[in-house]
UniProtKB/TrEMBL annotation:
GO terms for molecular function: phosphoric diester hydrolase activity. SUPFAM superfamilies: PLC-like phosphodiesterases. One of its GO terms (biological process) is lipid metabolic process. It comes from the Bacteria. This is Glycerophosphoryl diester phosphodiesterase.
Length: 246
């Protein structure tokens, strides 16, 4: 069988212009991704808004903090549109029902709200809840023990004993550990692959972000379960189509 990893479009079609917009997320699935990775913030009135930054300044050129603004106000500013910001609810309404969605929780306060929303779409099985705020993922599991959680690994891992650190992470009973592709530059390819194999040997999936190099993908194919990419077209071409996932 032609098994391949799950391919997710990073913020839709990638970081930059249009990222996390409804158009970008829909386009990623149209191009052939199995789903998308997106980020959620919480508005002042408790709406799950899809945006990476806490502010809209970088993406839309408006110096507005999402947590300090009601969703109604965002609408009045004409920022809620297909090429602007959208809501997590709208994403589940618009994307195909089979799409896999990695919801990265940027605001820990959103942890109590994401699971009920996803459950309202009967989409727990096709959703991965991830965050650098590992403790907020405990709240996700409290809401539904079947929820898939992915522990995002960043700079906090530097200087730690890899085996001891990952043993601590496994106590969360994660579905996946989401590693940055830069780990190969920091600790070397062979050590990086040893770390990936160690995690997978524990029955935990490995997601790699943000992998944009098709040559690297081919090199590690069969060793990683989820690929999150800004270079969706290049990665899909390297895989030669959809194939069959494991």
């Amino acid at each position: 069988m032609n098994f391949r990893p799950l391919i997710l479009g990073h913020r839709g079609m990638g970081t930059g212009e249009g990222e996390n917009s409804l158009l970008s997320l829909i386009r990623a699935v149209q191009v052939g991704a199995d789903g998308v990775e997106l980020d959620v913030q919480l508005s002042k009135d408790g709406v799950l808004v899809v945006n990476h930054d806490s502010s809209l300044k970088r993406t839309l050129g408006v110096d507005v903090e999402i947590k300090d603004t009601t969703f109604r106000s965002l609408r009045k500013m004409k920022l809620v549109r297909p090429d602007g910001i959208t809501t997590l609810e709208r994403v589940y309404l618009e994307l195909p029902e089979e799409s896999f969605i990695n919801v990265e929780i940027k605001d820990p306060l959103a942890a109590d709200l994401v699971v009920p929303l996803v459950k309202s779409f009967n989409a727990i099985d096709r959703t991965l809840f991830s965050s650098f705020w590992h403790e907020c993922l405990r709240k996700v599991k409290e809401k539904d023990e079947k929820a898939k959680i992915g522990l995002l690994i960043g700079e906090d891992a530097r200087g730690k004993n890899p085996v001891e650190y990952f043993e601590e992470l496994l106590a969360y009973h994660p579905y996946s550990i989401n590693l940055p592709v830069q780990l190969f530059d920091e600790i070397g390819f062979e050590l990086g692959m040893s770390l990936i194999r160690f995690v997978r040997a524990k029955g935990v999936k490995v997601a790699l972000w943000t992998l944009n190099d098709p040559a690297l993908l081919i090199k590690i194919r069969g060793e990683v379960d989820i690929i999150i990419t800004d270079n969706l077209r290049g990665i899909m071409a390297a895989l030669g189509g959809k194939g069959e996932r494991r």
